[in-house]
Amino acid sequence: MEEYGSCVASNPSTWQHHCHELKMKVANCTSSHPVIQKIRSSCSKEFVQFEHCLRENQADPTSCQPHIARFLGCAETVDLSGAEATIETPVPQPT
């Protein structure tokens, strides 16, 4: 997520093209990782506002820094107890 945010900030006029792969990685992570799902659920309002800001300010994504700061601030307050327990640990398979 931080790498995606840095990419967007570093490529203000071309972030949609330059950061597309990172955006897809973030999307895949959020759809499958229990901790990220819990944060996204708990901070959905802040995340939606950040996404809306990016859409509205495609030429100047740095103007959305307050939105990402609010989202990250919210994420830091989410109670993740129990979310880590649902992460599946791969079991080594005999060869």
Describe this structure in words.
The structure is a single chain. This protein is mainly α and 95 residues long. It contains six helices and no strands. Helix 3 (20-32) packs across helix 4 (34-42) and helix 5 (44-56) packs antiparallel against helix 6 (65-77).
State the total count of DSSP E strands: 0
Element order, helices and strands? HHHHHH
The Rg value, from CA coordinates, equals 16 Å
Number of helical segments with 4 or more residues? 6
Q: What is the average per-residue confidence, as pLDDT, rounded to a whole number?
A: 82
Amount of helix: 55-70%
Largest sheet: none
Structure, briefly:
The protein is mostly helical and 95 residues long.
Please supply descriptive tags for the structure shown above.
64% helix, globular, mainly alpha, 0% strand, 95 residues
Topology, element by element:
Layout: H1 2-10, H2 15-18, H3 20-32, H4 34-42, H5 44-56, H6 65-77
Helix pairs in contact: 3-4, 5-6
